[in-house]
Amino acid sequence: MSNSKLTGIFTTESDKLKHSIAGAVAGCVSSVVTCPLDVVKTRLQNQRKERKGSNSVPLYKGTGGTLKRIWNEEGIRGLYRGLGPTLYGYLPTWAIYFSAYDHFKRAFGAERTDHQSMVHIFAAMGAGATSTVVTNPLWVIKTRFMTQNVTSTHKYHNTFHAFKIILRTEGVRGFYKGLGPSLMGVSHVAVQFPLYEKMKLLLNSSDQEELSYPAILFASIVSKMAASLATYPHEVVRTRLQSQSTQPHRYHGMCHAVKVIYREEGWEIECRVYQRRLVTTAWSVLNLGSNRHVVVVKVNSITAVARHL
């Protein structure tokens, strides 16, 4: 094998590792910053809307009210429930994602130049589906923690304790609750990627080789928020399914959950938490993009120094 080919392989593998590390570190930092909003969003998604005429008062009301209630009843720990499994999940998620993305890109024919956008979209969806299937157990545990409050029947002490309890009481199937809507959620790539590319073209009015970092960040936030709005309903269904730990289950699968939620609560459940989702998404993308950029720069610097040693 020629030196040029070897160099190409090492560069590709180096870039893959570099972006996996950057994505994982940035994701972890972003999770710490946005965790309280994520807890609020998850609690509101999991809260059923009472029928008209009911005298019961909803436990959580709005973002501010929910934050205040969690703080008063559970303290700072309540606002960071689910952070553990989230942090555990980021490194395997990004490592699997980039490896799978590279595989799918080759499988779909990355060398073809006539349908490059479609190749990237399908490769991203395939990679997203692969990482979702592998890491779904951690996201189930995350949802269980985030929906756990002072009145919850099941009490999970930490990630490993939750893993043991779920395995013992629900079996392996318990770790794959909500997988259907999670897989549907990867379709957001089909919205986000083309919009992101279009935004970059619109922002690059001077035909520069590379866009400025703020422009890339702006394009990322707009495309991610639009994709989240377009594919958001699956999140409510996923949260409801993943949070079910006791028998009998209220929802018997994805389609049944959609029918029950629509029949009993209508689309208002979606509208109630759209605002929180947008705020969380914007903050998440902002932190993820900023930290990922910093980590990539640092890793590049370390790599450059290592080459001269």
TrEMBL record:
GO terms for molecular function: nucleotide transmembrane transporter activity. Keywords: Membrane, Mitochondrion, Repeat, Transmembrane, Transmembrane helix, Transport. It comes from the Eukaryota. InterPro entries: MCP, MCP_dom_sf, MCP_transmembrane, SLC25A32-like. Pfam families: Mito_carr (PF00153). It is a multi-pass membrane protein. The chain crosses the membrane at residues 78-98, 118-141. One of its GO terms (cellular component) is mitochondrial membrane. SUPFAM superfamilies: Mitochondrial carrier. It is found in: Mitochondrion membrane. Solcar repeats lie at residues 14-107, 115-202, 214-297. Belongs to the mitochondrial carrier (TC 2.A.29) family. This is 2655_t:CDS:1. It comes from Paraglomus brasilianum.
